[in-house]
Amino acid sequence: MITGKNYIGNKLSAKGSKTYTTFNPQLNKENEFSFVEATPEEIDQAVLQAKNAYAEFKEVSGKRKAEFLNAIADGILALDDSLVKTYCSETGLPEGRAMGERGRTVGQLRSFAELVKEGSWVEASIDSAIPNRTPAPKPDLRKLLIPLGPVVVFGASNFPLAYSTAGGDTAAALAAGCPVIVKSHPMHAGTGELVASAIVKAAEKTNMPNGVFSNLNSSGIEVGVALVQHPSVKAVGFTGSIRGGRALFDLASQREEPIPVFAEMGSVNPVVILPDAVQNRGAALANTYAGSITLGTGQFCTNPGLLLGIKGEALTSFIKNLSDAIIKIEPSCMLHPNIIGAYESNRRKAVAQKGLQVVADYQSDVQTNYARQTVSTVEGKTFLENTTLHQEVFGPYSIVVQCEDVDQLEQIISKLEGQLTGTIIADDSELSRYPRIVSALQNRVGRLIYNGVPTGVEVCPSMHHGGPYPSSTDSRFTAVGIHSIKRWVRPMSYQDWPDSQLPDALKDSNPLGIIRLVNNGLTSDKL
Ligand code: NAP
User: Fold this and answer.
1) I want to staple 263 with a disulfide (CB 3.0 to 4.6 A). Which of 411, 442, 445, 473 is the partner?
2) Crossing angle, helix 95-118 and helix 62-91, to 10 degrees?
3) Which residue, judged by its Cα, is nearest atom 14 of ligand 1?
4) What is the mean pLDDT of the chain?
5) pLDDT for 266
6) Residues 6+ away with beta carbon under 8 Å from 277
7) How much is the average pLDDT of 80-106?
8) What integer pLDDT is reported at residue 363 of this predicted model?
């Protein structure tokens, strides 16, 4: 049931007077529930409860954390229709997408449950003492990863389930042993509260300390700012705009004790179409890319916003085919009037740039909050000179850059800001002939894709979802997959520590049976 209140630990709370509603973009009207924004006092309570919970939660075994994570997944599934309906009414996204995203969210929670139940993720390493080493004896050293402390997670507008309340950041932080305070995204506060209720029930059912999770409502930046500045918060997870992510990153570094902000932000996801590929299968590629650019109304961080090719007849014909194909796709709804407002104004700004030619622009009437897909094209030289054209237009928009030659293509790639992904479309014998292009692209991105589309992010250990700034604030960490747990931990060494007082992961007898690096060799044996 949606109450519109905050969860401060396991208790519902609504002390504030500032309220807001969510919006149904399909019906173009406000939803019925009203949400009460968290007050400074409630923010403080949530963080202090998280701080207290941390003392106990960081010691909870992997097996028990797995029970907690699986209970959250079960609780989300048990919300059933009410969750799917609320999700659709707050996003304008179809039921199929809601179910798919729910499946992904549950899958993420369960994969972290498996990870922590098995236990080797703590990267335990042991270097035995050599007391008679000369000239100085070697001490016994043992290291593992430990949780950072309370983590604040900002819900993402474009993934109300998989990157919000119980999404990847929350699942990873809880798995690591960090209590989580979610700053609920105002556009889907009802979806957020339903999921929060499942987390709170799961915490109670599995006897987790009160305060291990809180969910705070907010409709402006104040709650988020107060959370990031709170001295007891130790790290932040964010998915959204470069402006928002950067503002939080700056706030966090200005604190007396700076803390890490793992922000996954904008990206135009360059796609390089090499000459043989565009010559031999330009028409098929055009259809594929018309679908990828408009998928989810272009509201994916991996949306292909920039296509790069070498000028010529084949590229001209690809542009024509892409324009014809994309214009036939029925426009779809964006998440919120603010998001479509931003799309319209960013698109207007992009197409008003000198030298830019719009080649596909959906002209027919569309329903309110539906986005008109657009493709534009520009010469390589113009693109190089005007960095406004390099910026993300969040929505179904893409620009095709016609480069003079391979040198200019390489120059353009090298000038791009950091990106989540880079795609190369090539015929089989072609890729090996462009090592400089591959190398330039590798320098700018976190994931290289061959002959595919960037949309669709597989959740698995080998996925890296992150990249050089500004696609993320720390290119060393992924926001997707089990390795994202590493954002919420720090290494800790014990020197000559008594065996009985060591964490189980580091004890001689290896009671957890985990894989450890012992004297430079991986083993699950006892010492
Ligand atoms: P956003 O503006 O970045 O906001 C995300 C969250 O951060 C919101 O909860 C917002 O709080 C908070 N926030 C933003 N600026 C802040 C600041 N200066 N201080 C404290 N908190 C701040 O993203 P959005 O609302 O999801 O969408 C807006 C635009 O972001 C979109 O139109 C799109 O351009 C971009 N976006 C990009 C991606 C991507 O993956 N590339 C994903 C989502 C959005 P309040 O809402 O409460 O103010």
Assistant:
1) 473
2) 170
3) 244
4) 97
5) 84
6) 285, 425, 426, 427, 430, 451
7) 97
8) 84
DSSP 450-498: ESS-S-----STT-----STTSBS-TTS-SSSGGGGGGGEEEEEEES--
Tell me, in angstroms, the distance from the centre of ligand 1 to residue 248's CA: 11
459 pocket-lining for ligand 1 (C-beta < 6 Å):
no
Single-letter residue type at 357? Q
Set out the domains of the chain in order of their start, with CATH numbers: 6-11+25-265+477-487 (3.40.605.10), 270-450 (3.40.309.10)
| Encoded amino acid at 186, one letter | P
The percent of residues in the chain predicted with pLDDT above 70, rounded, is 100
List 235's β-bridge partners, or say none.
151
Q: Which amino acid is at 5?
A: K
Q: DSSP assignment, residue 123? A: -
Does the pLDDT value for residue 438 go beyond 90? Answer: yes
Query: How many CA atoms lie within 13 Å of 511's alpha carbon, on the beta-carbon side?
Result: 8
How far apart CA 361 and CA 358 sit, in angstroms, is: 7
Does residue 341 have its Cβ closer than 6 Å to ligand 1?
no
**CA 455, 459, 460, 465: dihedral to nearest 10 degrees?**
60
Quick: pLDDT tens for 153-204: 999 999 999 999 999 999 999 999 999 999 999 999 999 999 999 999 999 9
Per-residue pLDDT tens digits for 296-330: 999 999 999 999 999 999 999 999 999 999 999 99
The sign of the CA dihedral 313, 319, 323, 324 is positive
Question: Coil, helix or strand for 343?
Answer: helix
Residue 34 Cβ contacting ligand 1 at under 6 Å: no
How many other CB atoms are found less than 10 A from the CB of residue 186? Answer: 23
Confidence of residue 361 (pLDDT cuts 50, 70, 90): confident
